[in-house]
């Protein structure tokens, strides 16, 4: 309908005496509007290209271990001044490594100098360690610790356990060792460059973020652990519980209680291995002794 009206208007203008000049002005205005719209679109595309190039030209954020200091409570002491005594809190300065974005001059570890496979997100690190809950007398092992050994370092620092990290890539293993040295936990953490399947591993709890084929290859090592967590994939042949968000947990089943191999006597529905009193006339003890053949 609108096209027909415009067409009728153009015909009427052309047929009139002043139609030619009016039609020329309308055509010129239409061309100017079209050109303005095209120029506006071209300008928008150019602006988007400029934004994209600016974003791509920015360097990627580099992370590394940076030494920081903090005040730690050291205890209360009694302090007397002019005969007036009071309790004063004392603090000491502690140096600790912090994993954060760093400039090239602060990159003391050089963790990301090595090629990095997909690392475990830091949000999942806390969840994994909370599930495993390594004790101080236990050893935590990470099958594929990566270039920063983040799980091993965090487990040792937070839970006080021992740490063991396996990394098959030489550059990532070297970077992981630098990260451990920078964390100050080198005496409690061991980084091994090699295939974990070819080692005799003595550990209690473990974690892996590997492909299904690699997990299947290491299944025998996982069965030696007490508790094990796998990210994204369950291990074939292991009854693993799905904890959600891509975490699968395996806990070694408690062995059945072995039957008693030494002789026992029954009295009142309970088992006894010897007399319970020193009275020579005790009927209960006499029955127990007879059953034990004593």
In what order do the strands lie side by side in the largest sheet?
5-4-3-6-7-9-8
Number of helices: 8
CATH architecture name of the largest domain: 3-Layer(aba) Sandwich
Largest sheet: 7 strands, mixed
What pattern of helices and strands is seen along the backbone?
Answer: HHEEHEHEHEEHHEEEEEH
Residues in helix, %: 25-40%
Reported by name, the CATH topology of the largest domain is Rossmann fold
Top-tier CATH class of the largest domain: Alpha Beta
The general outline is elongated
Cα Rg = 38 Å
Residue-averaged pLDDT, rounded? 75
Keywords, separated by commas or semicolons:
294 residues, alpha/beta, 3 domains, two-stranded antiparallel ribbon, 8 helices, 11 strands, elongated
Protein described:
The strands form 3 sheets. The chain has a 7-stranded mixed sheet, covered by helices on one side. A two-stranded antiparallel sheet has the order 1-2. Strands 10-11 form a two-stranded antiparallel sheet. The chain is 37% helix and 26% strand. It is elongated. The chain is built from 8 helices and 11 strands. About 6% of the residues have low confidence. A hairpin with a 2-residue loop joins β1 and β2. It has 3 domains: 39 residues, no CATH class; 141 residues, Vaccinia Virus protein VP39 (Rossmann fold); 38 residues, no CATH class. It is α/β, with parallel strands linked by helices and 294 residues long.
């Amino acid at each position: 309908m609108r096209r027909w009206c415009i067409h009728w208007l153009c015909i009427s203008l052309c047929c009139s005496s002043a139609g030619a000049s009016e039609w020329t002005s309308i055509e010129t205005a239409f061309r100017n509007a079209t050109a303005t719209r095209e120029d506006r679109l071209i300008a928008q595309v150019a602006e988007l290209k400029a934004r994209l190039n600016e974003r791509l030209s920015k360097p990627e954020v580099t992370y590394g271990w940076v030494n920081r200091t903090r005040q730690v409570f050291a205890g209360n002491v009694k302090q007397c001044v002019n005969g007036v005594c009071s309790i004063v809190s004392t603090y000491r300065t502690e140096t600790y490594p912090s994993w954060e974005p760093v400039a090239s001059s602060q990159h003391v570890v050089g963790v990301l100098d090595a090629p990095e496979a997909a690392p475990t997100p830091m949000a999942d690190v806390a969840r994994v360690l909370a599930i495993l809950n390594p004790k101080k007398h236990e050893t935590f092992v990470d099958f594929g610790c990566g270039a920063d050994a983040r799980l091993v370092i965090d487990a040792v620092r937070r839970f006080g356990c021992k740490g063991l990290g396996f990394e098959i890539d030489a550059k990532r293993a070297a970077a992981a060792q630098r990260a451990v040295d920078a964390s100050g936990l080198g005496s409690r953490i061991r980084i091994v460059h090699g295939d974990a399947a070819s080692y005799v591993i003595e550990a209690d709890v473990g974690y892996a973020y590997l492909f299904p084929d690699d997990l299947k290859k290491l299944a025998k090592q996982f069965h030696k652990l007490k508790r094990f967590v796998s990210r994204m994939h369950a291990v074939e042949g292991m009854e693993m519980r799905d904890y959600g968000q891509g975490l699968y947990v395996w806990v070694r089943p408690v062995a059945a209680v072995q039957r008693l191999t030494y002789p026992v006597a029954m009295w009142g529905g309970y088992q006894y291995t010897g007399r319970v009193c020193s009275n020579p006339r005790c009927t209960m003890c006499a029955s127990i002794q007879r059953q034990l053949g004593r």
